[in-house]
Design a protein that fits this description.
The chain is α/β, with parallel strands linked by helices. It has eleven helices and 16 strands.
């Protein structure tokens, strides 16, 4: 098959590779829609997960089933399906403990373009098909469907990790596609004031549309001072969906004692994360930091699809650039690398 791959750190290219083999509980799909991710950029150009040789990239897709294993019960050839970017092994100890995303070891539920070939091929493999595929709802926009693979569940997980409750005042640091979904999720969960940190106008406009009450532009000054001033004190909860290793220090400074930080930002570089000692209550301020890889799985995809189909969530609004044709995957990925001012998320219809 033809595929777009990481050749080595800093280099991508088109390759020919053997098509995947379907196991008894698995499925092989062909892509209908694909989207590149900033994680792909970190993987290739930052070497975030180490060197890989001719590993097919991509973990965001909508697909059509072309083969199923003999033990697959709920899917058949020709089904159009949602595919989560995280595909756990659902019979693992980690799944039974409630951390399916870490089945096989920390972060090992993230298989596509990490431990195995990703979705930017003419065919791709999905393990545990009954647990990791979901039927594509009739009439769902393919852009929205593709965002359900990663952007939506990751952003929603930020709100879960921060434990957003009715009436909470929330800061969301970073309003790229994941942060925008965190804004929407926080609004759905009942947040009161939502302080969305970002500088790009199109992202700020969409954040307001999704429920942000204030836009905090870091170009206008220290975001901690801006938020503390507007909120008249520390916020209840914080979601980190962007920034870098130093962003945690800013979050700690603007969080109340007993507050929670939910991090869903992929830290692709550096060795350590700095936490300010005094503002963390000398280690005893009950300021909880939880960072988590989003859960995958069929049930989660189905529930998020319900939010889309009921009109409560509009991830299709993230799509700013649409391409037709598998050969445009490379161009779409380079957009994510270069991040022009008008970009939020590109989509490739295959």
């Amino acid at each position: 098959m033809k595929a777009f791959a990481m050749r080595k750190i800093g280099q991508t290219g088109w390759i020919e590779k053997e098509a995947p083999v379907c196991g008894p509980m698995d499925a092989v799909c062909k892509p209908i829609a694909l989207a590149p991710c900033t994680s792909d950029v970190h993987t290739v150009w930052s070497g975030a997960i180490g060197d890989r040789c001719d590993m097919v990239l991509g973990h965001e897709a909508v697909g059509e089933v072309v083969e199923v294993g003999r033990m697959v019960n709920d899917f058949k050839v020709g089904d159009r399906v949602l595919i989560s970017a995280i595909t756990p092994d659902w019979n693992s100890y980690a799944a039974q403990e409630g951390y399916a995303m870490h089945s096989g070891g920390m972060l090992s539920g993230w298989k596509f373009s990490n431990f195995k070939d990703g979705v930017f091929g003419e065919y791709f493999h999905v393990n545990d098909a009954d647990g990791n595929l979901a039927h594509l709802p009739e009439g769902m926009d393919l852009g929205a469907a593709c965002m359900i693979s990663d952007m939506v569940p990751t952003g929603v997980h930020g709100a879960e990790l921060a434990d957003i409750q009715y009436g909470d005042n929330v800061a969301i640091i970073g309003i790229g596609p994941v942060g925008l979904m965190s804004v929407a999720a926080s609004a759905i969960r009942g947040a009161a004031n939502i302080y969305a940190v970002g500088s790009r106008k199109n992202c700020a406009d969409l954040a307001r549309e999704f429920g942000a009450t204030h836009i905090i532009n870091y170009k206008n000054g220290d975001i901690v001072e801006q938020i503390l001033d507007l909120n008249r004190g520390p916020v209840d909860k914080i979601i980190i969906a962007g920034g870098d290793n130093d962003t945690f220090a800013q979050a700690i400074r603007m969080l109340k004692a007993g507050g929670r930080i939910g991090n869903v930002n992929y830290l692709g570089e550096g060795d350590t994360v700095g936490i300010p000692r005094a503002e963390w209550g000398c280690g005893m301020g009950h300021k909880l930091i939880t960072g988590g890889l989003m859960p995958g799985g069929r049930l989660r995809s189905e529930k998020l699809a319900r939010l889309v189909m009921s009109g409560r969530l509009h991830p299709e609004r993230l799509i700013t650039h649409r391409f037709n044709g598998f050969e445009n995957v490379e161009q779409a990925l380079m957009l994510m690398k270069d991040k022009p001012a008008d970009l939020i998320k590109p989509l490739v219809l295959v």
